[in-house]
Specification:
The structure holds two protein chains of two kinds. By secondary structure, chain A is α/β, with parallel strands linked by helices. Helix content of chain A is 32%, strand content 22%. Chain A has helices at residues 49-56, 83-92, 101-104, 111-121, 127-140, 146-149, 159-171, 189-206, 217-223, 241-246, 251-259, 303-306, and strands at residues 7-16, 23-33, 38-42, 64-73, 76-77, 94-97, 177-181, 209-214, 226-231, 234-240, 312-315, 318-320. By secondary structure, chain B is of the alpha/beta class. Chain B has helices spanning 69-76, 99-106, 126-137, 142-155, 172-184, 202-219, 230-236, 254-259, 264-272, 312-316; strands at 20-32, 39-53, 58-62, 84-89, 92-93, 109-112, 190-194, 222-227, 239-244, 247-253, 322-325, 328-330. Classes of the chains: A alpha/beta, B alpha/beta. The A-B interface holds A 44-45, 144, 158, 160-161, 188-194, 196-197, 215-219, 221-222, 224, 241-242, 245, 255-257, 259-264, 266-267, 269-274, 276 and B 64-65, 171-174, 201-207, 209-210, 213, 228, 230-232, 234-235, 254, 258, 268-279, 281, 283-284, 286-287, 289-291.
Chain lengths: 339, 338
């Protein structure tokens, strides 16, 4: 793609705590999101995907701390932005929704007011205009009887409806990027299907790019254009969704796909990934996945344990950090380097 | 409400006693105005459930949150009482047993929970927690119990020295292994697993599902496997029952249920599972509307408010669980052959 990306993350590092006990939750991530694109970030708990999402908007709380890197939104570094510019960016240009929609809504404020508030404060609408638009937005996200529901309080609606309200609120100001962190994980499967449809349709209608953080391969398959697979604070594979699902290059991606039971394809046994995730307080010398990897011996003695692999470029737009791909040209390192 | 219910499968016609049989099971919860208020209404969390489980087989129980599957699971093991109906384990009616006999029976009917941490004493070593069942039931000498703990920890993939550690020192997957060890040490013949892998990552989930399957095959356990995850249930179950607001609305051998579902709710559930094939992206025909208020279910068929096939009869009469042959049952007026 020749066009400059909407968002570019360069060598981002977010640690929790300091000194030798610090947890390197995000440990050198490079990413790009283009206009209107859906980037799926997939990984298991503790891989750093949520911390990465929060870091993009500088929402990491102490003891978490962004240690280094750049987050360029339309060329401007979010990490060095002044507070006023940051406040303007949040909600207007980049919005975020979370896993627990009810926890994100103010329990003592009418739903309509919660959607109207950003329209008034940031969008310059009058009180009456904002309310009217809020009702319209509720209708657009599929809430029945929007005039009536706008006057309801969060405890009066279901979890699925609350997530619809969050989507309406987040998209009220037509942001160019929406970050959704496990938006359907707390919902039942039939409601999840509705919410995914809604997210896809609304983002497409507004031309909003979407970063969708999830642990669910099915959600990735349904939603993403491009996928970044995270493991131990790093992106280990980044490729178009068809490649990730049809022809995964990193052994961890393969393991992730094979270990989940897939409906309609019953196997006798599931493929396990042996062991567990590494201790992120220790500096990793080699590939973080090496202790669990079945490809480790093929790569040559000591290689995987001794040195972290750089991203290799398998084809334009398709990268994997794995020594088994050595021979492919190195992907262009971001300024700041990979080491 | 109960008149149209079919009687339980006459498994004892062949002279065999099933490992587990529930008949006409009803569990009600009061809906109160305040903490101390009189009940305003009742929710039938389990509303007339009949089921059987044979030794060596797994019955999968699927449904969405609030459908009553966890309440049913606990009731099957007499961890709570039923308001109506009976549960028999190996032919013994559990609600009628005197406490000592119930305790003896429980040894052979164990439960594995979603969150093993909540069910482990944080100040007790893992070995102590696993051994507790043996202590309570007074099984073996002290040395024999220790040996049994060591053996079962090995079986679930932990090391004997883990017995000396405390629950907080373990990862989620390891804690579930401890939960399974605690159930297995009593050599149960019936295991009820309530969302045993829902809190786990997929790579660890695979480890636990494989372990449960292996153990079941080795010991010929009968298993009730409760989950909201249809792919996991398909992997684990021989037969599957689908619950909707307290009722089993469809039940069938696994292949039949997934290949030829007859209840519109089952079809909606299956259609809603996101495909892993990015070429198959579609807007699913998710059931219309919102799930109903459990204290005010629709008259007649409880799914009719969201059902694409609803017809006048559905409002008037609750469909019984029709026998469609070959172990396939569906509670729908529009099911094939009805």
């Amino acid at each position: 793609m020749s066009e400059a990306p909407l968002l570019e993350v360069r060598d981002l590092r977010t640690h929790f705590g300091t000194g030798p006990g610090a947890v390197r939750a995000v440990n050198g991530v490079d990413l790009a999101v283009h206009r209107g694109e859906v980037l799926g970030i997939v990984g298991e708990s503790g891989c750093g995907k949520t911390v990465l999402a929060l870091s993009i908007l500088r929402l990491v709380d102490a003891p978490g701390r962004i240690v280094s890197g750049q987050v360029l939104f339309e060329g401007q570094d979010v990490l060095t932005m002044r507070p006023r510019a940051l406040t303007a960016l949040r909600g207007r240009d980049i919005a975020m929704i979370f896993q627990q929609p009810k926890a994100s809504l103010d329990p003592v404020m009418r739903i309509g007011s919660q959607i109207a508030e950003p329209l008034r404060l940031r969008g310059g609408r009058s009180r009456a205009e904002a309310w009217r638009e809020a009702v319209e937005l509720l209708g657009a996200v599929g809430i029945p009887n929007p005039e009536e529901k706008a006057r309801a309080y969060p405890h009066e609606i279901s979890g699925g409806q609350a997530q619809r309200v969050m989507i309406a609120t987040a998209l009220a100001l037509k942001p160019r990027l929406l970050i959704a962190d496990e938006p359907t994980t707390a919902l039942d499967v039939t409601v999840q299907a509705q919410i995914l449809d809604l997210l896809r349709e609304r983002c497409r209608a507004l031309g909003t790019a979407l970063i969708l953080v999830t642990h669910d391969i099915g959600v990735i398959a349904q939603m993403a254009d491009r996928v970044a697979v995270m493991y131990a604070g790093r992106v280990v594979e980044n490729a178009p969704v068809e490649d990730i699902l049809g022809n995964p290059a990193h052994p961890y991606t393969r393991g992730l796909l094979r270990s989940a039971p897939v409906m309609g394809a019953v196997q006798k046994r599931l493929q396990e990934i042996p062991g567990g995730i590494p201790d992120l307080t220790r500096p990793l010398r080699g590939c973080a996945f090496a202790p669990r990897c079945d490809g480790r011996r093929q790569a040559g003695p000591g290689r995987c344990d001794g040195q972290a692999p750089p991203p290799f470029m398998l084809s334009p737009g398709r990268e994997a950090r794995c020594w088994l791909q050595d021979g492919a040209p190195a992907a262009q390192p971001a300024p700041g380097g990979w080491s | 409400m109960g008149e149209s219910r079919l009687s339980p499968r006459p498994a004892d016609a062949a002279g065999r006693v099933p490992l587990l049989r529930a008949a006409g099971l009803v569990v009600r919860f009061p809906v109160r105005a305040g903490v101390m208020g009189r009940p305003r209404a009742w929710v039938q969390a389990v509303d007339g459930v009949d089921l059987t489980v044979e030794a060596g087989e797994t019955l999968g129980l699927v449904g969405e949150s609030g459908c009553g599957k966890s309440t049913l699971g606990r009731t099957l093991l007499a961890l709570r009482r039923a308001d109506e109906g009976s549960v028999e384990i190996e032919g013994q009616r559990v609600f009628d047993l005197p406490p000592a006999r119930l305790k003896a029976l429980r040894r052979h009917a164990q439960m594995v929970f979603q969150d093993p941490v909540a069910s482990l004493d944080p100040r007790r070593t893992v070995g102590g927690s696993v051994r507790m069942g043996l202590d309570l039931h007074g099984i073996g000498t002290r040395a024999e119990r220790e040996a049994a703990v060591t053996q079962v920890l090995r079986r679930v993939g932990l090391r004997p020295e883990h017995a000396e550690r405390f629950p907080h020192e373990f990862s989620g997957g390891q804690r579930q292994r401890i939960g399974i060890a605690r159930a297995l040490v009593l050599e149960p013949r019936l295991l009820v697993c309530d969302e045993p892998v829902s809190a786990l990552d997929v790579s660890v989930q695979a480890q636990i599902l494989n372990l449960l399957k292996d153990v079941q095959a080795e010991r010929g356990l009968g298993m009730v496997f409760i989950s909201h995850n249809l792919a996991v249930v398909e992997h684990m179950a021989d037969r599957v029952a689908v619950m909707y607001y307290g009722r089993i609305v469809e039940q069938a051998p696994r292949e039949t249920l997934y290949a030829d579902p007859q209840h519109p709710y089952t079809r909606a559930l299956l259609a809603a599972v996101p495909s892993h094939d990015p070429a198959q992206r579609h807007s699913v025909a998710a059931p219309a509307g919102e799930p109903p208020d459990p204290a005010r279910l629709p008259t007649g068929c409880r799914f009719r408010s969201r059902c694409p096939l609803a017809m006048p009869r559905c409002a008037a009469e609750e469909p019984p669980l029709f026998d469609l042959g070959q172990g396939h049952r569906a509670a729908c007026w529009a099911a094939r052959g009805v």
